[in-house]
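User: Sequence recovery, please. Input:
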């Protein structure tokens, strides 16, 4: 999701940057274009030609980076997931603050990233569902990875400061799944009007599951 180079200002001719830089810029432009097209028309109606046109590039360039639109959305999904994890990791510090503060920082960072990149959010949380079995497997794997991270962080904080612990990994996965569904609904329907309005709901969900005794 993050951009370091403005693709519109990359020089051409003898002043052109090295091939690796050009390919990175091309890929970034294609990711941005793909997210916009997928969000606007849906995965089923999107095409390599439409994505290339959105990026201001040739269809041949698209195929230099991706075999087809499935590979494109999978690569975009992986890129977005990495950026979300990086953003959330940077939102908290190991020292100081309560576990509640740590959770609030992570939730706030997650929702802020979605706000900054609405097309990517729409693509990786909504349109990915219609991209076939490989996409479904990748989505499940990423959600499982987020659940693992939530469980691991919870165990570390429980050991350090006595934070309440999840009863099982299923608890953590249930939270991740519920968050994804809440956000997906907001992206599909526009309710609530701003995805950041879901922050207190998500916090109550996490804190409630941590504090309620198992039956």
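Assistant: Recovered sequence (215 residues):
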């Amino acid at each position: 999701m993050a951009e370091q180079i403005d693709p519109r200002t990359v020089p051409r001719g003898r002043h052109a940057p090295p091939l690796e830089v050009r390919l990175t810029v091309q890929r970034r432009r294609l990711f941005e274009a793909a997210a916009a097209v997928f969000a606007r028309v849906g995965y089923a109606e999107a095409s390599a030609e439409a994505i290339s046109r959105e990026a201001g590039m040739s269809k041949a360039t698209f195929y230099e980076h991706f075999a087809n639109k499935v590979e494109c959305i999978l690569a975009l999904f992986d890129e977005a997931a990495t950026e979300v994890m990086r953003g959330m990791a940077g939102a908290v510090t190991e020292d100081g603050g309560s576990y509640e503060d740590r959770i609030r920082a992570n939730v706030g960072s997650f929702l802020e990233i979605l706000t900054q990149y609405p097309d990517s959010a729409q693509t990786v949380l909504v349109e990915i569902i219609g991209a076939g079995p490989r996409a479904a497997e990748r989505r499940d794997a990423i959600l499982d990875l987020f659940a693992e991270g939530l469980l691991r962080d919870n165990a570390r904080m429980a050991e350090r400061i006595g934070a309440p612990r999840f009863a099982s990994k299923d608890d953590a996965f249930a939270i991740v799944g519920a968050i994804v569904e809440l956000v997906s609904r907001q992206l599909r329907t526009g309710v609530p009007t701003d995805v950041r309005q879901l922050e207190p709901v998500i916090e109550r969900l996490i804190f409630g599951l941590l504090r309620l005794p198992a039956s």
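The CA atoms of residues 91 and 105 lie 6 Å apart.
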